[in-house]
Recover the amino acids of this structure.
């Protein structure tokens, strides 16, 4: 199911599914056959083909995981664990799957285009706080200082108690907004 098809629907409870290695396509296909709605945000890969002119193939924003909605009419979520391509449903207790925080999947969907490609710089502004999720600054919280039309974002990082300015290549480092410090 494409991002467009699920954009107009109101889903409240989403769950995380851990995939088997190489199981993304099989899991998507089989979950859809069973009546579940699956969502996988993608991002451009950090490197394209060597010496080629083709575009880099999109890769999952959260490698190894898929988000699944169980429609109200389909209460038997246990069948997800035996779905081809799925390793397991992430559980909060042995008898209950962990529900993702409200708005988490919706905010991801809102930042994806019709093909499910996560748009990293749309709606970001100087002053926004962000978390780096890959690259040499993975796990570091930063503040956006500058945006440009190129594939780089100027950020202010806190490293070893000091503020450090850096230019982050967008196609290599994904930035996910965690809070907004905008005035007005």
């Amino acid at each position: 199911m494409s991002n467009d098809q699920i954009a107009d629907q109101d889903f409240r409870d989403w769950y995380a599914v851990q995939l088997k290695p190489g199981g993304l396509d099989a899991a998507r296909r089989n979950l859809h056959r069973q009546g579940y709605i699956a969502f996988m945000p993608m991002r451009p890969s950090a490197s394209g083909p060597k010496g080629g002119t083709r575009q880099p193939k999109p890769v999952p924003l959260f490698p190894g995981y898929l988000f699944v909605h169980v429609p109200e009419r389909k209460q038997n979520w246990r069948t997800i664990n035996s779905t081809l391509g799925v390793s397991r449903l992430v559980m909060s207790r042995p008898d209950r799957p962990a529900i993702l925080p409200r708005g988490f999947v919706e905010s991801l969907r809102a930042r994806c285009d019709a093909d499910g490609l996560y748009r990293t710089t749309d709606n970001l502004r100087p002053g926004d706080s962000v978390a780096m999720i890959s690259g040499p600054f993975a796990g570091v919280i930063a503040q956006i200082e500058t945006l440009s039309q190129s594939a780089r974002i100027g950020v202010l990082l806190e490293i070893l108690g000091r503020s450090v300015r850096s230019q982050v290549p967008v196609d290599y480092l994904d930035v996910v907004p965690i809070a907004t410090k905008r005035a007005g």
Remarks:
- The CA atoms of residues 54 and 84 lie 31 Å apart.
- The first strand starts at residue 14 and ends at 19.
- The mean pLDDT is 78.
